[in-house]
Specification:
InterPro entries: DUF3107. This protein is α+β, with helices and mostly antiparallel strands and 74 residues long. It is 18% helix and 36% strand.
Length: 74
């Protein structure tokens, strides 16, 4: 699934593919926002770990879990 994270005061965003489900990502982010957590950790499908400070979130976009189709549609 595609994850995009907007960072406050930054013109760029984090964009990566993850093997985590939308429910898992939502649970991690909502738990961090409800508690006094300083950051969240998300991992991509290649094993990289992204650590983002909670205070700098602008938005978090979680894409669909369906895979992209390749080829022509008749």
């Amino acid at each position: 699934m595609d994850i995009r994270i907007g960072i406050a005061n930054s013109p760029r965003e984090l964009n990566f593919e993850s093997t985590q489900s939308a429910a898992e990502v939502e649970k991690i982010v909502s738990a961090a926002l409800d508690s006094d957590a300083k950051y969240i950790k998300l991992s991509d499908d290649k094993g990289k770990v992204y650590i983002v400070p909670v205070a700098s979130f602008s938005y978090l976009e979680v894409g669909s879990e369906s895979s992209r189709r390749v080829g022509f549609v008749a």
